Amino acid sequence: MIQVENYFAQVPEKLQNNQKRCEKELLDRRKINNACWRNIKKELLTFFHNKCAYCETPLALPESIDHYRPKKIYYWLAHEWTNFLPSCDYCQKAKADIFETENPHLEVPLLADGSLDYEKCKADGKHLLSENSPYLHPVLDDPNEHLDIILENFEKLGKKQGFIIPKTPKGEKSRDFYNLNRKNLILERRKIINEILDKIITEREFLKKNNVPESLLDRASIDLVMPKIIENSQNNKEYAFVWRKISVFFGN
Question: Where do the structural domains in the chain lie, given as residue ranges?
Answer without folding.
Answer: 13-135, 144-249
